[in-house]
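Retro notes (design track)

What went well: tokenization of the new backbones is finally stable.
What didn't: we kept losing track of which sequence belonged to which structure.
Fix going forward: every design gets posted as structure first, then sequence, in one message. First example under the new rule, 148 residues:
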């Protein structure tokens, strides 16, 4: 009995180690392309890190040109563009919306929170406004993905 209990505990420990290793490698990497002078972009990066994303920040001299090169239509533009899991994320999109995008895997370019909506992650302040996160389809059209 004692021998089988020891074997069971060892198996659970190995299983737990495997599970923990899987969780550690399953973290999504987000590449953020931003101006080196933008403070709100850094706050958005902090928001993503707090949600468990690994973030690599890339300072670029021309954010609109980078956005165009990556493939996000200009009409959805904001102060930074990110790449994660084969998608683009434009602007101050909440981490929970990105997590949902990665779970659901829709056919799309990605998500956008056009402009810089007050109250969005990284743009916190005394006068938040309602805003939408848009799902940007490969056709360039969009639809509401989440309301905030």
């Amino acid at each position: 009995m004692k021998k089988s209990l020891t074997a069971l505990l060892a198996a659970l420990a190995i299983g737990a180690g495997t599970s923990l290793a899987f969780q550690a490698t399953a973290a999504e990497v987000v590449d953020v392309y931003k101006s080196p002078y933008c403070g709100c972009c850094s706050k958005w990066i902090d928001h993503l890190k707090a949600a468990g994303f690994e973030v690599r920040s890339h300072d670029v001299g021309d954010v609109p040109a980078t956005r165009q090169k990556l493939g996000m239509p200009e009409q959805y533009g904001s102060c930074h563009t990110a790449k994660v899991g084969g998608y683009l994320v434009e602007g101050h999109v909440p981490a929970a919306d990105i997590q949902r995008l990665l779970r659901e895997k829709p056919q799309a370019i990605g998500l956008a929170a056009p402009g810089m909506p007050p109250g969005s992650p990284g743009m916190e302040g005394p006068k938040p406004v309602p805003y939408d996160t848009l799902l940007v389809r490969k056709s360039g059209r969009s639809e509401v993905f989440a309301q905030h």
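Added context from the reviewer: The beta strands are 29-34, 54-59, 80-84, 87-91, 110-113, 132-136, 142-147.
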